[in-house]
Request: fold
Amino acid sequence: MDFELSPEEKKLQEETRQFVDREIRPLVPVIEKKKSYPIEIVKRLARQGIYRLLIPKEYGGIYETVRSLPICVAREELGRGHNFAGASIATQGLGSYPLVLAGSAEIRERYLPRVASGEIVPAFALTEPEAGSDAGSLQTKALREGDYYRINGTKCFISNAGIAQYIVLFAKTNPSLGAKGISAILVETGAPGYEVTRQMEILAIDVVNELQFKDCLVPRANLLGEEGKGFSVAMQTLDLLRCSVGAHAVGIAQEAFDLALAYAKKRVQFGKPIAKHQAIQLKLANMIVEINCGRLLVYQAALAKDTGQSDVTFKSSMAKYYATEMAQRVVDQAVQIHGGYGVLVDDFPLERLYREVRAPRIYEGTSEIQQLIIANHFVKEQKR
Ligand code: COS
Reply:
């Protein structure tokens, strides 16, 4: 068993780390003050070729097929730099992977190269006010009418919807069925009847919207895959990206650890640096052990995806669940090591990490949903 990244993956890790230091970190104070959409981060990620990790080579990507491990390696580094940088690779992937999985040749050709180059920002619209964890109970309808679908309904917590050029919409084409009535449909955001009704402000800097569809007509040719297969498209997309949420959390935790270690080495109390006090050493030891456990789970899940193992859902959920919960504990300990400086809003970055670490335990499936998936891997009879 090989626990080392390949030379190619190490190069990606190193280049992304340098990119974050050079081009993301200097933007952080400005972004945090402005609180508006950090489009400059998107432009820089695009220039660096980060989004090309999400797209097959045929459509402008880096690898022949979309690979999870490079996405996770890059996202850990991006997550260290700023929440939005880590989240941006995921939202770009959530909006493009359904096309990779199920889009017609024409749709892939039209959109994927521009997602790879960052010219297009897409969004993934699954969640609704009354359908969060129970995604199969969503109520938005897309009813066939000649060559079109007529769409009505509301979506919420949709990242990027306000600036996206298209969204991947999950809606019921057969409302009498549960998850089996859901289809995935590409909707261009300029379509009449598509409206962004609210910007939802959340703890960390991210751009999250509420959307409404009122008699929005979309060509039937925009269906991704077959009618009734949309839930499976959504779940397979989450299989790819949930472990990258774990990678993002590992990045936040590593950043918090590095800051806490540096601070503990220079902060003197009782006549010596606090890093020399056992009370602090025990914390540092637990933090770094947990970070490494999280990273290994992420790599395990990514490799399961990249080698087509059948238990990828289970492994991806384990990685997301453990790493996001772990990062919360690690950031909390890093704040504790910083003492009063840990809760200062200005100058010390711990307060920002404390805000950034919270949402990953919720988005792309709460920790509790990941626990259900993990348990059901053993409890439920496997159908797939
Ligand atoms: N890949 C492919 N197909 C999958 C799948 C996966 N990972 N997971 C489930 N499916 C299929 C199942 O095989 C089943 O199809 P069949 O009936 O043909 O066998 C169908 O989808 C329904 O699956 P299941 O019965 O497991 O669905 P549930 O309604 O019990 O819900 C959970 C499953 C809870 C796992 C799902 O609703 C979920 O992930 N919820 C969280 C949603 C979420 O992450 N929201 C965040 C939005 S993005 S920020």
In short: The CA atoms of residues 156 and 210 lie 4 Å apart.
